[in-house]
Design a protein that fits this description.
Elements lengths: L11 H5 L2 H4 L13 H9 L3 H10 L12 H10 L2
Length: 81
């Protein structure tokens, strides 16, 4: 019998995140739309650092994660190398 031993990420922070109470539309806006509302919500969220860490670790390419847009996360990756 084969058992998958791939570690699953700890996603417990998601249940506590403010975005779980608002909906994905703010965090995954249409191209060219403002991410201001998402950033305001992230700015009040206690799970912001866990969210950003998750996005950077898993190379999330779309949406606002941890208060940063796609472009901002890409820039952060480039400067931290």
């Amino acid at each position: 019998m084969h058992t998958d031993t791939t570690a699953t990420p700890d996603l417990a922070w998601q249940a506590e995140a403010l975005c779980a109470e608002t909906g994905a539309d703010f965090f995954f806006p249409e191209p060219g739309s403002s991410v201001r509302e998402a950033k305001l919500i992230c700015g009040m969220c206690e799970m912001r650092s866990a969210c950003l860490d998750y996005a950077l670790t898993h190379d999330e390419r779309f949406g606002v994660w941890g208060g940063l847009s796609e472009k901002e996360r890409l820039q952060l990756r480039r400067t931290s190398r």
